[in-house]
Specification:
about 325 residues, 8-stranded mixed beta sheet, globular
């Protein structure tokens, strides 16, 4: 009897991205290994998004469209899509970004190579749509710097800690594939964590179960100053509230193991360290975390492992060593 092949659902939340949907949906339709299901959650769009999606649906019988009459936010839209998905695995795509033609195929092959994997991640690649430029591995904090060769590697939870002791590892939901059951086990993306809800989900999964790491670019992350995450992180007061919500979540018994893992490997929290340390110092009950994380950060700073922090300290501007940049025509 032939074993059933695992299925893949692509979940795509959308709010008023009618202009960009043509690119993202064309990329999904062009997969060398087609997705078994496409779930689009339209979060109360007021532009022409539904018309664009309807036109796409005429030649996509495996598309499930879910409509929110009122906007509920991207976190709620993602959660709705994951619950509605029927695939064994889930790729969380974005309406204003694009996945590469072999995204589903490459992830499926990696999962077959490492059957213990419940999560697979690929290289984080920045896309500047205004110029069509791609920036690959801009620095060690935007890349899977530890990979050697062209093959995928299995990273156990233990090895993940060992690697994080050396440097931060960027894991991004937009360049990953999750076992759907894993997301359901962990609970929905937390609306209280807002633009860091995806960060929490992927790092908690990696700490608990490890991941398959792939030295490939399988999706492009749109770089814009006006994005949801950029706007949120730039508002210090809002960012502090989100970090406080993160620690409140880590205080629960359900995620005590993740809290312990983050204390053991604080480099995982590098993306929001500047906001997190002042927030911890403001709250007496957080002094133990502030002392531990602050001591780690100071050691990093003094050892020259935080060049951007040094630049701010010296009031100088530095540019990180850029990885390969490739000009891609925006129309592709």
């Amino acid at each position: 009897m032939t074993a059933r092949l695992p299925t893949i659902s692509i979940v795509l939340p959308n709010h008023n991205h009618a202009r960009e949907l043509g690119i993202s949906l064309a990329a999904i339709a062009a997969q060398t290994r087609p997705a078994d299901q496409i779930v689009i959650v339209d979060d109360g769009s007021t532009d022409d998004s539904l018309e664009v999606i309807s036109a796409f649906a005429t030649h996509c019988p495996n598309l499930l469209l879910i409509k929110h009459e009122q906007r509920q936010g991207v976190v709620a839209a993602v959660n709705r899509g994951v619950r509605a998905a029927s695939g064994d695995y889930v790729i969380l795509a974005s309406a204003d970004e694009r996945i590469l033609p072999d995204c589903c195929e490459a992830f499926a092959e990696a999962m077959a190579q490492f059957p213990q994997a419940r999560l697979a991640v690929s290289k984080f690649t920045e896309w500047f749509p205004q110029t069509g430029e791609l920036r690959l591995g801009q620095d060690s904090e935007c890349d899977l710097w530890f990979l050697c060769g062209d093959g995928a590697e299995w990273v156990s939870p233990r090895r993940f800690h060992e690697l994080l002791a050396k440097a931060h590892i960027r894991l991004s939901v937009n360049s990953a594939m999750f076992e759907r059951e894993l997301l359901l086990e962990m609970g929905p993306f937390d609306p209280a964590l807002r633009w860091h809800s995806d960060w929490f989900a992927i790092y908690a999964a990696a700490f608990r179960h490890g991941f398959c790491a792939m030295p490939r670019t399988l999706s492009w992350f749109r770089m814009e100053e006006d994005s949801y995450s950029s706007r949120g992180a730039a508002d210090i007061a809002d960012q502090e509230r989100v970090i406080e919500a993160l620690y409140t979540k880590l205080d629960t018994r359900e995620f005590a193991d993740v809290r312990s893992a983050l204390m053991r490997s604080p480099s995982a929290m590098v993306p929001f360290m500047r906001t997190m340390l002042p927030m911890l110092v403001k709250h007496p009950k957080r002094y133990p975390e502030a002392m531990f994380v602050g001591t780690w950060w100071l050691k990093q700073f003094l050892q020259g492992r935080r060049p951007r922090a040094w630049a701010r300290f010296l009031n100088r501007k530095i540019r990180p060593a850029a990885g390969p940049a490739i000009a891609i025509p925006p129309s592709e």
